[in-house]
From TrEMBL:
GO molecular function: actin binding; histone deacetylase activity; hydrolase activity; transferase activity; zinc ion binding
Lineage: Eukaryota, Metazoa, Chordata, Craniata, Vertebrata
CC per GO annotation: axon; centrosome; dendrite; histone deacetylase complex; perikaryon
Protein name, per record: Protein deacetylase HDAC6
Domain UBP-type: residue ranges: 819-919
Amino acid sequence: EVKRRGRMERSRDGTEEELKDRLQKLVNKEPVSLSLCLSVSRFICLSLRLSNSSLPFLTEITPDKLLLFHKNINTKHVLILTLLSSDCSLMSSYGLLCVCRKHYVDMMKSTQTMSESELHTLSESYDSVYLHPESFQVCVLAVGSVLQLVDRVMTSELRNGFAVIRPPGHHAQANQANGFCVFNNVAIAARYAQTTHSVSRVLIVDWDVHHGQGIQYLFQEDPSVLYFSVHRYEQGSFWPHLPESDGGFVGSGRAEGRTMNLSWNKVGMKDADYITAFQQLLLPVAYEFQPELVLVSAGFDAAFGDPKGGYDLQSTAEGAASCVRALLGGACPPLTPPTAPCGPLATGSVIRATSYEQSMEQLSSAPSVATATGLVYDERMMEHLNMWDRHHPEQPQRISKIFSKHQQLGLVARCQRIAARLATEEELTLCHRYSQIKASAVMKARDLHKLGEEFNSIFINNQSFMSAQLAVGGCFNAVERILTGQVSNGVAIVRPPGHHAERDSPCGFCFFNTAALAARHAQKISNHAPLRVLILDWDVHHGNGTQHMFEDDDSVLYISLHRYDNGIFFPSSEDAAPNQVGVAKGAGFNVNVAWSGGRMGDSDYLAAFHHVVMPIATEFNPGLVLVSAGFDAARGDPLGGYNVTPEGYAHLTHQLMSLAGGRVLLILEGGYNLSSISESMAMCTSVLLGDPPPSLVIPLPPPHHSAVAAINEVIQHHAPYWRSLRIHSQYRKCRKSERSSTGKPPLPSPGLEATTVTVQTSGPAHSGISRFGHQSNISRSHSCNVHSSGWGQGGLSVSLTVSVSFCPQSTMYVVDPLSWCPHLDAVKQLPPSGIDVFLPCQDCGSDAENWICLTCYQVLCGRYVNSHMLDHAAVCEHPLVLSFSDLSVWCYLCEAYIHNQILYEAKNAAHCAKFGEEIPPWS
């Protein structure tokens, strides 16, 4: 125990300094504004239409859309770059050759001196292309505009940008124009960023209604670019009529999986369909890919009001202006119904077709770009303390440390202070029916101790009632400011916490349920009832009190992400289980993401947000978001035992800001490591103020297998109530003969066909691993050669069907090895003698199931023999071991199998000793 505490103390000291440095860098950055790259050269406004041209739609792609867009932008918030054609030409001359063939560029350049008939003939040789004597100059200006903007963003001169250019580019290929496009602006920008700014990973998102086949062709063999396109397809009947526009085309070779086509096969797709695609498909993959630059092919021909699917001036201008507002930090406007994706309802499902029109009236249609964040803090709340245990985790210093961190980082000065007040007894009756706590103000110490013993995990002093009143009253004031538009969002640094408090009794350090009372107060003062409120509870403990108060209420959606451990973690109740979905009309409005097994971290919480929280919350479409923001799931917390980072909390906050027009209030709940809660809440406040969330650790490990199981269980229970959870896909691998289109050669073979891998192993631990019957097989979704070592192509997630031979039952387990773990630095260089896989356990002489330590290279038996390797790992703190049975590597601290390049040398040595041949090199 002494050693454990010492390790925690050393770890806490180190992480505190690391987090302090990272946070200071975040807030010390010079504020940057959006650059709206609006090219005002005379060339960009040329109609470029030949008098006798018969090409379709030319009247609909005139420069008028640029001018109309400019009118929709409030330019006082925008830095407008006036680009000189000479500057752009200089940049474009280099940038064009990053992607385009030189002979093609020269041919386009020659169009400046061509006759009208020659231009017409050349245009007719392409699909849907028109050319003009000044087309080349305009195209060069468009490319140069984008490249100048890339320079400013990549050098951190600007945070982001919006390039208003024409002609478009995403259909253009390396040596041919196509679909109004001459040069592929976005593809050129991606290559330019890679060659000029050493960008290693680029994400290209293409939401134009037409598939950007030009981008796909250029990057389909490049693993450094992830291309995601969502487009109208209609089984290939919609332009460009290519089979490779379908979802089965995923890239080739090392870039397999780097092309993602979401092809709509019906018309009428709405906001909810696109948002569902982003939440459940694009964002999870993008977070795993961790791009260094995001480029958007922002076509607005899928916009509402554009009946032809292309080039409606008003919808294009409004859509582009909305994007600029978002890039400037403005809140997303509330969605208009329907808020669920289209598609047939599942058989036997129950879905509420609530009319949202009336309650939508209370929300402004376009939130202002100018944002203000409210901050509630009153040091009088520190007067509530434990008189009998000065080491109690719910210390008064919790809020003072958080506030001090906010001051240190300059966040307090950027916020609008909101005074706390005492909530009245009448206001407390909105959710509570007990009055014992009021009498505590005049009780003697002995009576206070006796009163506290009547409740579950409660301590009381004479100032407890007042402190709890201040916490509630401060949140009331914050809610009022948010709903009246005086602030856009807010953060409440308050105590005591509240989410365990029941209607009739305090519980778990909580007296009054602050978030529940704030929700009821918001509904009471709202002009249009009922106000729909989302309460998102990410405290590591389940908010039993909040659940019970709203379990029969469909106007409040309660979503809790908490440690459950099959019901043994506090508050130790089956009410926290995922099958508790609410009762009566509240059925479906209580969502419990209950973690069991594993030390959950950023990946797990983000996965829950992508697949459960945000889909349900978006469909619910709240008018206010309240966050029960406990930070006891943070790394280093003494009670939670989880690993969520401050950066992780920042990303969760950022996602919630897309709801309710940005009306979000974070209310402090638990969290008992003073450093962790201070850093984490400061990161959240920074995001509320409009700062971008910082980058997460790279590479982001995959979600824990127990987390995946928990998320799937939630989806199973709630799919009958929420259409957004009924997203199913069936894996289909394209035949090689399908991977070509007219004029395109077939892609090279990606390698071996998909295989089913069955490995016999005696894993050192298997608690929490999903069980299947012994007949089960798991087919791999990636084509790569897997030898008996379990080794394959780098970066792929490999699922193995594993039979544990030392278990009495014939049970199968699905094992998904982690691609990274924080303990890989424990792996030491191989000894000169190499690895002898036939050595017995050096303690007991057994050769039944042996492992080798990758730190000291001792050979010891596994837990199903005499557990000597398990004992060795605990005593020597050597976490990583390699199995002589199947050559898999296990980390005792992560409780997971690991598959990483660092392990290659040891695995290869063991493979040579066991089979006499090397395994394929890491690639």
